[in-house]
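Practice problem 4.
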């Protein structure tokens, strides 16, 4: 899937003169129609990536296989995905290693799952939990489309993490836990049960109110080390002769990461000595800053865009189609030798 001549069923990225990428799946006899003309897939099949091809109207395109980052940004989605800049941080901060036993929730569209699966490799395991069955379907198809076959170490469980994790994961058997969901504090008991002593738990949250709620829940549990948080801002640059400067636009906010590690049972966390005067959080503070009612943590109150079942079903069908095409390409891909 990643080397050798381009084959039917494989995804390729066509980049036009303006740098705009379009991703297509190669098919025998296939054609790619745009307002700039028609490009026959035959012009690409059997060629090596990196070529520049012209369509019938003479419009030229640079041809490359999509990288993981490109794939994630062009794949069908239900839920909002974790962007590559954050996935990269998560893999590093959570210290995901080849062979690791990792737990993840929610799966959403499977973007973060792809980075986690790459990092655990063939001998690691990723147990992913998702409460929406339609989202789990989209994620499964996206992961299969990317790898060309189901990943041997990946299992997806439908249901709430807090209910399903104790059923499927032996106590203390997870090396790492990564959560991307609305109310990760609801999973604290399940995570502390599943995570091995010293195991890392990283959460990705979109708002400071979630960050604060989760931090205080972790602290008051006394089961974890002092949590640490950061966000990553990525600024791209314009590179043109002497006009070398930051681009005018940037993605200013995606989310915050919060990382902590499981203490051994019967241990109490070290109270870190802080230089600044420590501010103790009282119940009153929490009440004024956070909603007292736990039911108030909804997609609507956090201004996240809810995804309708119809939209999710359409994305699932599209993802399934790409995965089926990728699976047909995969056996051939293994037989073809790269003769460059
Ligand atoms: C923002 S999306 C995850 C996106 C995903 N990380 C990706 O990169 O594609 C959050 C997901 O968490 C799921 N979810 C929320 N709470 C959950 C829970 N307690 N257990 C399992 N899934 C949950 C939601 O249904 C939603 O699909």
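Answer key:
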């Amino acid at each position: 899937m990643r080397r050798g001549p381009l084959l039917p069923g494989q995804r390729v990225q066509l980049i036009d003169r303006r740098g705009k990428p379009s991703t297509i799946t190669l098919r025998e006899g296939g054609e790619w129609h745009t307002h700039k003309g028609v490009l026959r897939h035959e012009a690409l099949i059997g060629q090596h990536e990196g070529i520049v091809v012209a369509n019938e109207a003479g419009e030229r395109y640079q041809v490359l296989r999509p990288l993981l980052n490109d794939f994630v940004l062009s794949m069908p989605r239900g839920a909002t995905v974790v962007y590559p800049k954050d996935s990269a941080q998560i893999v590093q901060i959570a210290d995901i290693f080849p062979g690791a036993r990792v737990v993840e929730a929610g799966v959403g569209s499977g973007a973060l799952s792809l980075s986690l699966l790459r990092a655990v490799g063939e001998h690691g395991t990723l147990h992913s939990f998702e409460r929406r069955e339609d989202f789990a379907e989209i994620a499964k198809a996206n992961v299969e489309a990317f790898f060309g076959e189901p990943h041997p170490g990946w299992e997806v469980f439908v249901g709430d993490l807090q209910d399903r994790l104790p059923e499927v994961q032996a106590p203390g058997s997870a090396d790492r836990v990564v959560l991307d969901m609305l109310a990760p504090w609801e999973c604290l008991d399940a995570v502390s049960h599943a995570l091995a002593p010293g195991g890392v738990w990283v959460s990705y949250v979109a708002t400071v109110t979630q960050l604060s709620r989760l931090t205080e829940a972790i602290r008051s549990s006394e089961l974890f080390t002092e949590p640490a948080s950061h966000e990553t801002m990525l600024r791209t640059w314009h590179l043109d002769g002497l006009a070398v400067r930051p681009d005018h636009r940037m993605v200013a906010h995606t989310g915050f990461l919060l990382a902590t590690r499981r203490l051994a049972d019967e241990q109490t966390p070290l109270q870190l000595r802080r230089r600044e005067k420590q501010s103790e959080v009282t119940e009153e503070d929490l009440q004024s800053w956070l909603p007292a009612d736990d039911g108030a943590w909804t997609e609507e109150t956090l201004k996240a865009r809810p995804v309708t079942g119809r939209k999710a079903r359409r994305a699932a069908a599209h993802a399934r189609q790409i995965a089926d095409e990728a699976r047909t390409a995969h056996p051939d891909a293994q037989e073809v030798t790269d003769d460059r």
